[in-house]
Amino acid sequence: MTLSLVGRRHVSGACLLLMVHCLSLMGCGNSNRPKTIPVKGTITFGGGPWPKPGEIYFTCVEPEAGYPRKPGLAQFDTDGAFVVGSFTEKDGLVPGTYRMSIECWEVRPNMDGIPAKSYLPDKYLNPAENGLEDVIIKSTDGRREITLDIPIRR
């Protein structure tokens, strides 16, 4: 038995059954996903708004026992408000200890030969050297709120 999908392409019954089985293994939703803790906050630039939108990267240094090592990402607009996501946008962070790095580009890195230029001192791009405190997310936290101020480069 064959099933015609588009024009001259045919799929056998066994192949169709295999595709349905694979889709069912993928599942629906996030039932196998570990618990995440909602994390939101505000980041200011010299006590005020940002010149452009940017990103905050959360690098997992040490996951809490029984949890996977999973990074997080938050995007902020010029107002500095952000919500962190790990598996999906804005779903929070897996419990653990995180180091942050921040990007806000005047000229983004590119392949055009134009030098990249950040609004931030280089140290904020490197989580190991930026001097920001680690963020600890505990499985017992209901939600976390973070407030940061990044000094303007002089």
What's this model, at a glance?
This protein is mainly beta and 154 residues long.
Please write out the topology.
Elements: E1 2-6, E2 9-12, H1 13-26, E3 39-45, E4 54-63, E5 72-76, E6 81-83, E7 96-103, E8 105-107, E9 117-118, E10 135-137, E11 144-150
Parallel strand pairs: 3-11
Antiparallel strand pairs: 1-2, 3-6, 4-5, 4-7, 7-10, 8-9
Instruction: Please give the largest β-sheet.
Output: 4 strands, antiparallel
Strand content: 35-45%
Largest sheet strand order: 5-4-7-10
Helix content: under 10%
Number of beta strands: 11
**Oligomeric form:** single chain
Put simply, the count of helices is 1
CATH architecture annotation of the largest domain: Sandwich
Mean pLDDT value: 83
Poorly predicted ranges (pLDDT <50, ≥5 residues)? 1-11, 13-18, 20-28
Structural class: mainly beta
**Overall tally of domains:** 2
Q: In whole angstroms, how far apart are the ends?
A: 73 Å
Rg from alpha-carbon coordinates: 21 Å
Order of helices and strands: EEHEEEEEEEEE
The CATH topology name of the largest domain reads Immunoglobulin-like
CATH class of the largest domain: Mainly Beta
- Globally, the shape reads globular
